Amino acid sequence: MKDFADIPALMAEIGSAAKAAAAELAFAPADQRAQALTAAADAVWARRDEIIAANARDLDYGRDKGLSPAMMDRLALDEARIQGIVDGLRAVAAQDDPVGAVLSEWDRPTGLHIRRVRTPLGVIGVIYESRPNVTADAGALCLKSGNAVILRGGSESFHSSSLIHACLRDGLRAADLPETAIQLVPTRDRAAVGEMLTMTDTIDVIIPRGGKGLVGRVQAEARVPVFAHLEGICHIYVDADADPGKTARVILNAKTRRTGICGAAECLLVDRAWYDRNGATFIAELIAAGVEVRADDILQAIPGTVPAKADDFGREFLDMIIAARVVDGVDGAIAHIRRYGSQHTDCILTENDATAERFFQRLDSAILMRNASTQFADGGEFGMGAEIGIATGKMHARGPVGAEQLTSFKYLVEGDGTIRA
User: Fold this and answer.
1) pLDDT digits over 115-148, tens only?
2) Alpha-carbon distance 352 to 265, whole Å?
3) Are strands 102-107 and 113-120 parallel, antiparallel or unpaired?
């Protein structure tokens, strides 16, 4: 695996090794896989200074490429974020093991006893951009669910991801598991992505995590099944019965806490009745916090807003920018979200239970929230320890993709010399 110039040969070797490792992981004891994750967490913390130094090189690379401030934030690691990586690894290690869990069981009049049990998918390919913590999250969740994984990180996070991957390998070695269970593609060459998308003999599913360009390419070119979302176009709807105090707090957090994540709010919808009665002081607060509010004709009356263009609605800014418009009640909000949303995460701010229920019933986003920041659209915040991404499709996995979502199931059927009449 030394000739990085021969990408097809390199990827074929990685795929073959992953398939062999997956066969071994499928029956590796749960405590052995948990031990590997705990040892990896220890290694990450012990090597945190090395990881931060490697990340400094990645940040220099990102600046040279002209990455936006939000993308630079996604790339950056400090001791607090490394502590988050360590905590995530330990949380996944401590979760109940999904492999072999009995989902249901029943007896048939024929004498058969049938169980449906969780089983690993096999080999998972994860293609991601910028965020080096995905290396740890994806590696941990795949291992926990008994899968081997091939990681292809973004060119920007090459050095950070390589060191985090080395820590994951340390964990595998400490637990006497095959080091090829978690592999990182050792080259920035984009041809490696193209190879992964066609490796139907060795990769069972591809999970892309990144911008619209990456995910769109994966969905267009992949011959391997894909779990994906194109964009996180997250809406917040301020209903006529919203609580003013909750409203301002949630909106500010949803937009400004971290603008570069897929759960950041990108569009604000204000009920006309609310606006007529209360105005929209939260828009002034957004502007004061440095957010550019691109407003419709009505909200442009608020000082500091700028006129919205047609393509500002249905757009993922990943920056200190938000689109805003007035709608006619919850049905107006629902119609707007159906037209412009990406079925990722949408939120209603209201104290009216019936209105909230209508919002929940009539929208089909992967995550729907009430009176809570869209920044909670995260597997860790859902109690999954970590996530590989938010899936917005409707087949197999949906919402935060954690360890359970990385399993399938099989039927175990037992008889006693039973024959069919």
Assistant:
1) 999 999 999 999 998 789 999 999 999 999 999 9
2) 22
3) antiparallel
Rounded distance, CA 328 to CA 372, Å?
22
Q: What band does 2 get if pLDDT is binned at 50, 70 and 90?
A: low
Q: Which of 239, 231, 210 is nearest to 152 (CA)?
A: 210
Architecture category of domain 234-376 in CATH: 3-Layer(aba) Sandwich (3.40)
For residue 389, the model assigns a pLDDT of 79
Q: With respect to CATH, is domain 7-227+401-414 assigned 3.40.605.10?
A: yes
pLDDT for the residue 134: 92
Q: Give the C-alpha separation, 283 to 294, whole Å.
A: 10
Q: Across all residues in the chain, what is the average pLDDT?
A: 93
- Sign of torsion over alpha carbons 5, 196, 403, 318: positive
- The phi, psi pair for 345, rounded to 5°, reads -145, 130
Structure tokens that stand for 27 in this block: 């029956």
Helices marked H in 175-208: 191-196
Distance of alpha carbon 100 from alpha carbon 301, whole angstroms: 60
> In this structure, are residues 343 and 366 in contact, taking their beta carbons and an 8 Å threshold?
yes
Considering the entire predicted model, what is its pTM?
A: 0.83
Query: With contact defined as beta carbons under 8 Å apart, do 240 and 273 qualify?
Result: yes
C-alpha to C-alpha distance for 259 and 320, rounded to whole angstroms: 6
Q: Left if phi > 0, otherwise alpha if psi is -120 to 50, otherwise beta: which for 172?
A: alpha
Phi and psi of 101, rounded to 5°?
-60, 135
Alpha-carbon span 232 to 264, nearest angstrom: 8
DSSP state of 232: -
- The Cα 100–Cα 123 span in angstroms is 17
In which band, very low, low, confident or very high, does the pLDDT at 3 lie, cut at 50, 70 and 90?
A: low
Contact 146, 25 (CB under 8 A): yes
Domain residue extents for the chain: 7-227+401-414, 234-376
Q: What is the DSSP string of 64-128?
A: HHT--HHHHHHH---HHHHHHHHHHHHHHHHSPP-TT-EEEEEE-TTS-EEEEEEEE--EEEEEE
For residue 1, the model assigns a pLDDT of: 42
**What is the edge-to-edge ordering of all strands in the sheet holding 205-209?**
182-184, 148-152, 123-128, 205-209
| Whole-number Å distance between alpha carbons of 208 and 215 | 6
What gap in Å lies between CA 343 and CA 366, rounded to an integer? Answer: 6
